[in-house]
Write a structure and sequence with these properties.
- The protein is built from 7 helices and no strands.
- The longest helix is centred in the middle third of the chain and has 14 residues.
- Helix 2 crosses helix 4.
- The chain is 55% helix and 0% strand.
- The protein has 2 domains: 84 residues, no CATH class; 48 residues.
- The chain is an all-alpha fold.
Length: 154
């Protein structure tokens, strides 16, 4: 649990979760000046309030983006995400690759060929063969997961 009264702990938690506003010093909206509840370092809170001011308070987009330290493109991205997914749409997207990009179809065909020749081959041997043939370093668990996905048909 984060102690919201400890500014260093909250800052670290925002950074860890990827929700730290990139320019909190640029946030000049009045609500964020008191330091009570609204925190200019909290990107989710700032984006939500930015959207609310434009939609509910009917403030011009150029003004709300300036007051909240964001650009117009960021405003429109946040608006679309919020309209599509609600508050969860303002959360940062998961980082990192979305697929086993090193295990391309050609690599997996090679792995399956090796396994057809000798089904007793284990992941460490397969990884070494991939490294020699394709000049790619792959973790043995990645190969195991890719084979499990193929087996499930997903």
């Amino acid at each position: 649990m984060v102690d919201t009264n400890d500014p260093n702990q909250k800052l670290e938690e925002l950074r860890k979760r990827g929700t730290l506003h990139p320019r909190p010093k640029d946030v000049t909206a009045e609500l964020f000046m008191s330091g009570e509840f609204f925190d200019p370092r909290d990107a989710i809170q700032v984006k939500y309030e930015m959207l609310r001011r434009a939609r509910i308070d009917k403030q011009p987009v150029t003004r709300v983006v300036r007051d909240h330290g964001y650009s117009r493109p960021t405003f429109y991205e946040a608006q679309a995400a919020f309209e599509s997914d609600g508050l969860a749409g303002l959360l940062p997207a998961k980082r990192g690759p979305r697929t086993a990009h090193k295990l391309s179809p050609a690599v997996m065909e090679f792995v399956n060929e090796l396994l057809r020749e000798d089904p007793s081959r284990k992941a460490p041997e397969l990884v070494e063969r991939i490294r020699r043939r394709f000049k790619r370093r792959v973790h043995p668990r990645s190969v195991e997961r890719a084979l499990e996905r193929e087996k499930r048909g997903s």
